[in-house]
Amino acid sequence: MQVTETNADGLKREFKVVVPAGQIETRTQDRLAEIAKTVKLPGFRPGKVPMKIVRQKYAAAIMGEVLETAVNDGVQSAIGERNLRPAMQPKVEITSYAEGTDLEFAVSLEVLPDITPMDFSTITLEREKAEIPADEVDETLKNLAQRHEASEPVKRAAKDGDIVVIDFLGKQDGIAFPGGSAEDYQLKLGSGTFIPGFEEQLVGKKAGEASVVSVSFPEGYGNAELAGKPAEFEVTVKEVRAAKAADIDDELAKKVGLDSLDALKTAITDEIGRELNAMGRAKVKRKLLDALAAGHDFQVPSQMVEQEFEAIWKQISQDREQGRVDPSDEGKDEDTLKADYRNLAERRVRLGLLLADVGQKNQITVTQDDLNKALIEEARRYPGQEHLVFQYYKSNQEALNGLRAPIFEDKVIDFILELAKVTDVPVSAADLRKDPDEAAPAAEAEAKPKKKAAPKKKAAEKAE
């Protein structure tokens, strides 16, 4: 086998590989000999079929297998002899082959760059720290008490915030439609539970009063047969109940699984503290990634950039189809947007390669204990289904790798932060929670495609 390098431009490598016809024939004969040991044909005992007949019957069938093996060996030879580190799967193109002749093919690939990390001790960062506001703990307790509110019957007209117990029957053109009726339904006025306009028409109604509520279903309503169409609901108010928030005491704590009010306050305080610390870390990580991006400008494999760009652009396209457009993208034509997101893709690839290199050189690994903690956190997101979560990750290596990657990244980030000069700066909780994009819209330090942030999970929700 002859391997000749034909191009070495930057990270690109190209080779011409020639596998002599004699080697192809030897591989073919070896494979036919294996088949001949077990082949069964009429008129012959197993293993006694003449090689000429075996060749006539099976040579064409095994040729693809023989050529594939020869190509794989050629690719491995080109890579292994030069200690190359392919960035992605090499591309192979057969340029010449006919039975009885040499096999010639071209191999093209991109290699991973050699990276020289900057001196991390030269990085100077400020990490925002915030005290836990006492009024925020109190507000969380109030919200928790409201969610565990009770109610009591009142002899007056219903007002916003009251609970009305109703029977209703929905009709279109005088005909009742499926799913449009219920009895003894408890509806909190002002909650937005029902379609727009329904709850407002029950304000001022008293127990025993019947009325007809006229509304129109929204255009985007889940039931296409009802979407955008008018309807009438025959409604009878059977009872009006005034909502009353639960008392903030030990009983409230017990409702959320804690022993006392003090324990509940501690749990809320701890949760707010974890939230603020996580936000502080996210912001300093963002600043660190900006510094790392500014401090490194090595070449990155174009194939990796293109793959990353396609993933980003697919997400952006889906968001735009659903009406979610980042404000900073408004008014830009598609070519400009693609150029912006291709730059983002290049940044993400460069940072990913840098962090991987730092982790490898400093023997940073993800332990089984790290994975177990991540699995437990993931399982907690699905109460009552934890065993299914563990089973899913146990049987899905790709999903497990998806957990491993962010753990590895965080450990490398922590390693670099230990070397950098990081100064804690006191700020208010409100300032800490501000979106960094509002202060620096040009930064994309998290190296993620732009999308709306998920709503923050309140401490009271976690306490439950």
TrEMBL record:
Catalysed reaction equations from the record: [protein]-peptidylproline (omega=180) = [protein]-peptidylproline (omega=0)
Keyword Chaperone recorded: yes
Class in the EC hierarchy, top level: isomerase
Matching InterPro entries: PPIase_dom_sf, PPIase_FKBP_dom, Trig_fac, Trigger_fac_C, Trigger_fac_C_sf, Trigger_fac_ribosome-bd_bac, Trigger_fac_ribosome-bd_sf, Trigger_fact/SurA_dom_sf
Protein's name in the database: Trigger factor
Pfam family for this entry, one: Trigger_N
Gene coding for it: tig
Locations listed in the record: Cytoplasm
Biological role stated in the UniProt entry: Involved in protein export. Acts as a chaperone by maintaining the newly synthesized protein in an open conformation. Functions as a peptidyl-prolyl cis-trans isomerase.
GO cellular component, one term: cytoplasm
Keyword presence, Membrane: no
Enzyme nomenclature, EC number: 5.2.1.8
Domain text: Consists of 3 domains; the N-terminus binds the ribosome, the middle domain has PPIase activity, while the C-terminus has intrinsic chaperone activity on its own.
Annotated family: Belongs to the FKBP-type PPIase family. Tig subfamily.
Region (Disordered) residue spans: 428-464
Any single biological process term in GO: protein transport
Domain PPIase FKBP-type, residue spans: 161-246
Keyword tags: Cell cycle, Cell division, Chaperone, Cytoplasm, Isomerase, Rotamase
HAMAP family: Trigger_factor_Tig (MF_00303)
Entry GO MF terms: peptidyl-prolyl cis-trans isomerase activity; protein folding chaperone; ribosome binding
Gene3D superfamilies given in the database record: 3.10.50.40, Trigger factor ribosome-binding domain, Trigger factor, C-terminal domain
